Every structure is written in C-alpha cells, then in structure tokens.
C-alpha cells in the first residue's frame, strides 16, 4: 500500500481518476434522488446502476426487489422504476394493466417529486460542497495592488490596448477583486470597458464586442496572465528534453536567452520558440550568481521544464478571507447561484453568437481535461460542485428522455387533468433519446477534432 501511494502517477491517470470519482459521486446521488422517493411512495425499483451495462455488468447483486450493479460504460447511471417509460423502452410491461406498485399508477404529484428528485439532490449537493469549501479553504484571491509585476499581455490583450506591466483595476467600472480571474470576468460580464493602472496612472480602455467570442474561443488563454519570474520547479526526464543534462537545476531563475532579456517567464516563452531545433546560450541566476548554459531546444521550442506557479513561493501576497461554519452557509448558497448564473451566461452566449459551439461543447473527455494533473482536493470538490450544477440544469431542461421532459408532461397532466397517452410518451422518449445521442456524438466528435486537428 505504501508503495502504491508513493508511486508518481502520470497526469492523465490522475485526471481520469478524479473524473471517474467525481462523476460516480454525482451519478449515484442523482439516481438516489429518484430511488428514495420512489421507494417512499411504494414504487418497485427494479435496478440501480452506476454506469451503463449494455450486454453485461461488471458487478450485480439483487437485494430484495432491486438489482444493484456496476456497468462498464462510465458515462452515467440509472434507476429502472417499474411502470415508467424510460430508456429501456419496456413495451411489454407498459402494455399490461397498471399495478399498484408501478410508477404510472401513482398520483401525479408523487410522480413529479420522483422525477425532480435527482435534480434536487444535485442542487443540494452543490450547496453543501460549496459550504464545505468555503469553511475549509475560505476565499483566496490576488488583489490588483498585489500583482507586483503587472500582467504579461498576449495577442488579444494587445488588440484592445493592454501593455506588459498593466494592472486591470476595474471592469465596467466595478473594482476587480482577483487579478488572476480578469479574462474570465471580462467574458462573463461581457465588459464594455476596463480600467488599467499604467505607470502609476489609471486609464480606460474600450472593449470591442468582438473580444468576447475571441476570449471564449481561447478560454482566456490569449489575453493576459499575471506576470511571474521564471524559477525552475521541475525538469523533465524524457529523452526529447535536455535541460537537466545541460546543467539546469531546480530553483534556477531564467533571465535571458542569447542576447534577449527574459526577466519574466512569459518573456522566456515568447522568445524560446524563435530557437527551435537549436542550441542557445541560456542565461540564469543560481543562488544570486549569473551563469550561462548551452541549452538544446527541441523542434517544438521547448526545453522540458515546469516553473514555480505557487503565488506564495513567488513572493506574491494573496489574501484569504476565512469564514466560520455559520458564515459559510449563506456563502454556499451564493456561490451555487453565481456558478449557475455563469453557466447560463455561457449558454446564452452560444445562442447570441458570442461563443461558438465548436469551442464550448465537449464530451466526457473535455470534462476530464479540466481536472489538475496532480491531485488537489480543493480543485476536485470545486469542479464536482460545478458539474453537479450542470447536471441539475441539463436534466431540468424540458426535453423528452430527461427529467425535465417527464416533469413537463406531469405538470401538463396536473393542470389539464388529462394524462398524455402512453404511445405519445413512447414516441417522445424516442425523439428525446435521438436528440441526446446526437448531442453526445457531436460533443465527442468535437473533442476528437480538437485533439487531432486543432493544435
């Protein structure tokens, strides 16, 4: 066991592990939200599965009337409630007279509670996680005045007039709290203008509408970053990189390439690509002493290093607002609501052309890619809460085959007193499944395209 824990897992396996654990928690609790009220109201639950199990199951065990199991397709899970038209399309059962223990024989209000149980649990789960995160870690941020070297500006930032060393102090006239979140806030707030501090004086820069879709497309990656010095943190042992063999050591600070000064890591990254496939003089400082190393650069313009990104180690003074447990409770609700608003803004931007489907839609592989390459519980729980909100929102949409579609038909029955015909429900389920499978195929195709062709 100690050997297993000490093993250094590849980042892709760490990401996959976090994704599977996160989605397992979300799926089990979502389905539990359907399972428990179904049992309370006397419905027979035939199956409770984590992951899907076409043809066979990895594990299954029947307890009472319910078969509990683990499928082999890790894209979700399900509960099969007797007498309910679902993805199993059990026409034989639906053709028989309704039994008292079937979903379809229950009053509409009970069926509505059963259908909304999964979404309700996901919302409650997100709130509880946000409460826990707030209580455990508080709220850490980098105030603009503490961004000691300002910003390193990329192409999108330069296009709106930003310069290296600028500090963004306001967005749409509202003070910036965290300098590290500026690109995301400009996109989500659809900023019209920003205020920057340059050479001790503030000035306002207009933001063209074209910047928002560009920011969404690059996910903020081509705008600006907090400027940091280039202190070496890790050296790759892969054969294509030679930084370690050339004499570079952890803790060295990179200050120049050939005759070009690179006082900040972003300067180094901009410059090194000009020396692809060459060996160049790399100027560093080691324990305050200047040194020059002959550094081979590979064909991609890389030397195989990771630099220190921890703000505290770099001398940046981040601020942390701590909360008592009582104070964390309202903050948990607030963070849940703000996250939902941010997600809804992203969806609205898809329909208004401020975000592109090919840049925003992704499959399970996109979700996995956002987890860090090293296990980090704060990131894990934050992303799990975020995905819980997405799962709740997507499931409440009034689309047949989703919880929201079933809830809509039930509300129609409660208002009109007329129950939709089982044939209609069957066709609606088929249409909904086709739509969902098509969307999943599109998302998977976009991920494949991004991986192989968009580099």
Automatic annotation (TrEMBL):
Its EC number is 3.4.24.-. Its cofactor is Zn(2+). It is an enzyme of class 3 (hydrolase). Its main location: membrane. The keyword DNA-binding does not apply. It holds the Pfam family Peptidase_M50. It is a multi-pass membrane protein. GO terms for molecular function: metallopeptidase activity. SUPFAM superfamilies: PDZ domain-like (SSF50156). Keywords: Hydrolase, Membrane, Metal-binding, Metalloprotease, Protease, Transmembrane, Transmembrane helix, Zinc. It is found in: Membrane. The chain crosses the membrane at residues 112-135, 380-402, 427-449. Residues 19-438 form the Peptidase M50 domain. NCBIfam families: RIP metalloprotease RseP (TIGR00054). Belongs to the peptidase M50B family. This is Zinc metalloprotease. It comes from Flaviaesturariibacter amylovorans.
